[in-house]
Amino acid sequence: MSGLGKVAGDQLAAVVERIERIEEEIRELAEGKKEIYQEAKGNGFDVKILREVIRVRKQDPKERDEQESLLDVYLQAIKGSSKVAKAA
Amino acid sequence: MSGLGKVAGDQLAAVVERIERIEEEIRELAEGKKEIYQEAKGNGFDVKILREVIRVRKQDPKERDEQESLLDVYLQAIKGSSKVAKAA
Amino acid sequence: MSGLGKVAGDQLAAVVERIERIEEEIRELAEGKKEIYQEAKGNGFDVKILREVIRVRKQDPKERDEQESLLDVYLQAIKGSSKVAKAA
Amino acid sequence: MSGLGKVAGDQLAAVVERIERIEEEIRELAEGKKEIYQEAKGNGFDVKILREVIRVRKQDPKERDEQESLLDVYLQAIKGSSKVAKAA
DNA sequence: CACTGGAAAATGCCGC
DNA sequence: GCGGCATTTTCCAGTG
């Protein structure tokens, strides 16, 4: 070992260890999540839609509505562009 | 019949619940991780570099195995192509 | 240089080069795309929704409707689960 | 007035068009890339390893800069923490 | 408060 | 046709 103070080195090692430990736990949970999806798939559910269900439930309904509305506005705007001016 | 049957519906609800539970746990762990970084920062460590340390350590094992000199990889890539190469 | 036949080696080099060239071009185009999004943002458009517009237009309407329907079915099924049996 | 005005609508349409155009080009290039791999495969190269070659070459420059020995990184990570370390 | 960079999710592709 | 792998895309937190 060359230039680290012992205390600082120990501190660094501890920090790194704690973080890697947590990341490992996260990895395991993510693994479990994947398994649940696979299991659901095996039971006939559509995984893609299932993910969307989770996503939708995550954002509150209000926000959700706003986004959908804006999406509609955009889609409409494109349809109407350079065709009809369409009474605003 | 429209929609899912009662049983399937319950099954679906269970799946969703389990996934959301896991995601909550992951969120908590991620939160903990952030705190560790902040704490380390408070102790004078450079968070950015700290992240780099973690990242490098993560890649380290992989690379050692897969990069045992670029030449080896090339040699492998060529294996079996000597005959064909002439045909080119 | 040690063990590659000249011809095979040249062939390999050519392949690698061509691929890297293409990947470079892709990178540049992706870069351009990002810029367009930024420009749009500067003009007051909501980038997130804009991305969704692109996504929606990519999938044909029929498929799109099916997915939305299924999503509704799932969401309904969860709402109803372990509450009312609801005439199937 | 509901929705976007005509001008904004046209602007939006233009943006969408440009993006879709670029994505199309990217698709074509990606297609070409795939073909090169297939062609190489036909010439006796192992595609999987070929991909690895590309990947390794991509990471190579990065690593050389960022991993000029883990020790350097650690040393940097510690910079300025010697005082604090005592306090721990 | 925009920007960059990094984590997480989603999609697509390949081999079995 | 499915599962795993790799790539791409999306999202979010930190930083200036």
What does this structure look like?
The structure is a homotetramer of 88-residue chains. Chain A has 88 residues and is mainly α. In chain A, 78% of the residues lie in helices and 0% in strands. Chain A contains three helices and no strands. The longest helix of chain A has 37 residues. Chain A is elongated. The relative contact order of chain A is 0.04. The mean pLDDT of chain A is 88. Chains A and C meet through helix 2 and helix 3 of A and helix 2 and helix 3 of C. The structure holds a DNA duplex (16 and 16 nucleotides).
What are the defining features of this structure?
DNA-binding; 78% helix; homotetramer; elongated; 88 residues; 3 helices; 0% strand; mainly alpha
Detail the topology: elements first, then pairings.
Four copies of one chain form a homotetramer.
Chain A: H1 6-42, H2 47-58, H3 61-80
Chain B binds a DNA duplex (16 and 16 nucleotides) through residues 30, 34, 47-48, 51, 55.
Short summary:
4 copies of one chain form a homotetramer. Chain A is built from 3 helices and no strands.
Query: Oligomerization state of this entry?
Result: homotetramer
Kindly estimate the percentage of residues of chain A that lie in beta strands according to DSSP.
under 5%
Q: Could you spell the SSE succession of chain A in H and E letters?
A: HHH
Q: Profile the largest sheet of chain A.
A: none
